[in-house]
């Protein structure tokens, strides 16, 4: 899914305008969401998912009209050799748009996924992650949902779905025409100030970025990671004046 083409601007405002209220699936719905048995280090993330408001994530919120291409991404936390980590993928360099950009697994909702405002995003996030990375969804425990966000340039309404990789399974690029690689990033690297910067797009907008695993993570993906680190209390002070120019068209 293309969801890295717009930086996620943040604000401390917790109130949302009319029509932009938080819409998260019922936590007990069909047993798809559960916080039972999560490792203690994920508790701050689960708590943040219950209270965070849309404008605390981004100023780009879904249109009040309900328009937009409904989609979901899987923000999957696992535990690797260096502790907590996140699963990411990198788009193939041969693609016409957003070539080589890291992102969360995800994509558009299909009709069989269900209602976009309830459990549809949860099913879509798991389905797309399996299709793109080959992971076994039976080993993933979904424990939270962040508010829906909007990517104006692509018209995507994106629901970030939080998962715990309870039983890890082998992953890799399923279709090399679409995905160059699938990789994990230690949270320790994401919080390391030496790996943080502000990405500046040629069109003028800017946002957080991470230089990890030989990749520059920016745009929507970096914005969501930045806010998770912040609201989970994991963020470390970093030099926001350090800039990384984005010198391609996107």
UniProtKB/TrEMBL annotation:
InterPro entries: CoAse, NUDIX_hydrolase-like_dom_sf, NUDIX_hydrolase_dom. The keyword Hydrolase applies. Keywords: Hydrolase, Magnesium, Manganese, Metal-binding. Pfam families: NUDIX. It comes from Streptomyces anatolicus. Residues 1-32, 95-121 are annotated as: Disordered. The lineage of its organism: Bacteria, Bacillati, Actinomycetota, Actinomycetes, Kitasatosporales. Its cofactor is Mn(2+); Mg(2+). This is NUDIX domain-containing protein. Residues 1-16 have a biased composition (Low complexity). Residues 67-211 form the Nudix hydrolase domain.
């Amino acid at each position: 899914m293309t969801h890295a083409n717009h930086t996620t601007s943040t604000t401390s405002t917790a109130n949302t305008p009319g029509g932009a209220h938080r819409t998260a699936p019922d936590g007990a719905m069909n047993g798809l969401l559960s916080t039972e048995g999560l490792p203690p280090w994920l508790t701050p993330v689960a708590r943040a998912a219950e209270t965070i408001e849309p404008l605390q994530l981004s100023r780009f919120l879904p249109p009040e009209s309900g328009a937009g291409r409904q989609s979901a991404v899987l923000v999957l936390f696992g535990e690797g050799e260096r502790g907590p980590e996140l699963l990411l993928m990198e788009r193939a360099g041969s693609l016409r748009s957003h070539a080589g950009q890291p992102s969360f697994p995800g994509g558009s909702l299909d009709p069989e996924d269900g209602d976009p405002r309830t459990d549809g995003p949860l099913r879509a996030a798991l389905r797309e992650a399996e299709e793109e990375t080959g992971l076994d969804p039976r080993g993933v425990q979904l424990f939270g949902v962040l508010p829906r966000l909007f990517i104006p340039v692509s018209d995507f309404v994106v629901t970030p779905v939080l998962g715990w990789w309870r039983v890890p399974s082998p992953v890799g690029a399923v279709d090399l025409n679409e995905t160059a690689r699938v990789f994990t990033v230690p949270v320790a690297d994401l919080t390391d100030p030496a790996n943080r910067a502000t990405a500046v797009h040629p069109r003028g907008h800017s946002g957080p970025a991470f230089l990890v695993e030989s990749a520059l993570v920016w745009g929507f993906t970096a914005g969501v990671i930045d806010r998770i680190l912040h609201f989970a209390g994991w963020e470390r002070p970093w030099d926001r004046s350090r800039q990384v120019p984005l010198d391609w068209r996107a």
